[in-house]
Amino acid sequence: TTMLWNDRLVKKEEIKLSIEDRGYQFGDGVYEVIKVYNGSMFTVTEHIDRFYESAEKINIVIPYTKDVLHKMVYDLIEANEIVNGYVYFQITRGSSPRAHAFPQPTTEPVFIAYTMKGERSIENFEKGVKAKFVEDIRWLRCDIKSLNLLGNVLAKEAAQQAGCYEAIQHRGEIVTEGSSSNMYGIKDGVLYTHPTNNLILHGITRRVIMSLCEEIGLSVIEEAFTTEQAIDMDEFFMSSTSSEITPIIQIDDSIIGNGKPGEWTRKLQAAFDARVQQLGSL
Ligand code: PMP
After folding, report:
1. Active site includes 260?
2. In what order do the strands lie in the sheet with 8-11?
3. Is 248 helix (H, G, I), strand (E, B) or coil?
4. Which atom of ligand 1 is nearest to the CA of 206?
5. Same fold for the domain at 2-117 and the one at 122-280?
6. Nearest atom within ligand 1 for CA of residue 46
7. Which CATH fold topology does 122-280 show?
8. By CB distance 3.0 to 4.6 Å, which of 40, 79, 138, 184 could disulfide with 193?
9. CA of 9 to the centre of ligand 1 (A)
10. Is the peptide bond between 103 and the residue preceding it cis, with omega within 30 degrees of 0?
């Protein structure tokens, strides 16, 4: 397989990373994941914009223009002949003897990208999944798509140990987001989701969903809801690049609605599929 190592397409075996890379020692970097449908990247501009925003928030200067990065990633997908799958990329602050403060003089950031093949999880989309409430113990800059994912890792592990697909994190009573997804409840024909502040990642799929709600005439209130309100919702679902719109039919021991993906959720899924189809025809 071919990967990107800084601005070069190379074989995986050629890549040499330092044990003093700050990504390795401090999680000092940011990343993105973009879905590839039928050879095209979905919402690529939004993902690249967020990558630059995340990097800027931690004072990493990406040494390429957005257009150049877009082309590099596109060439990688072509080189690996990815039809359906993902492209992952990350940048770290670079390599320097271990010390917490930023290295002086500034190090060269290290960029890595690779692709993965993968088909859509149709069964989850159709049947829905179970989720588990997990206390949100992460830091207060969850808006940054940081390589520091320990809180997210522990939350997902707790969910999977309990036989659940995803964790629903909450700070005290307030539901924030999943371990790698955003969360939504629908009650009496209104969709509720946590506002985009420092406590959640501003999901790209979430942005698409906000536009789809307008398209299908579903009212949205971007207000946080509690765990108690969550289990009383008529419908519940999660969203992410890989999980798209995945219905949640059970949280811990509580069945949501009638235990099946809800009407509005299905409409959103259909509208989402239409967006993906449009991409293929471009
Ligand atoms: N929240 C977190 C913590 C995530 O890791 C992700 C996945 N990137 C999301 C939300 C969903 O974001 P997106 O729709 O951009 O994949």
Report:
1. no
2. 8-11, 2-5, 110-117, 85-92, 29-37, 40-41
3. strand
4. 14
5. no
6. 15
7. D-amino Acid Aminotransferase; Chain A, domain 2 (3.20.10)
8. 184
9. 27
10. no
Please state which CATH number belongs to domain 2-117: 3.30.470.10
Tokens at residue 277, please? 């189809």
Residue-range domain boundaries for the chain: 2-117, 122-280
Nearest to 98 by CA among 193, 185, 25, 201: 25
Structure confidence by residue, pLDDT tens digits, 105-147: 999 999 999 999 999 999 999 999 999 999 999 999 999 999 9
ipTM: 0.99
Report d(CA 235, CA 247) in Å as an integer.
Answer: 8
Q: Which residue in the list 145, 156, 187, 267 is annotated as catalytic?
A: 145
Summarize pLDDT for 143-191 with one digit per residue, the tens: 999 999 999 999 999 999 999 999 999 999 999 999 999 999 999 999 9
- Which residue reads 């700070």 in tokens? 171
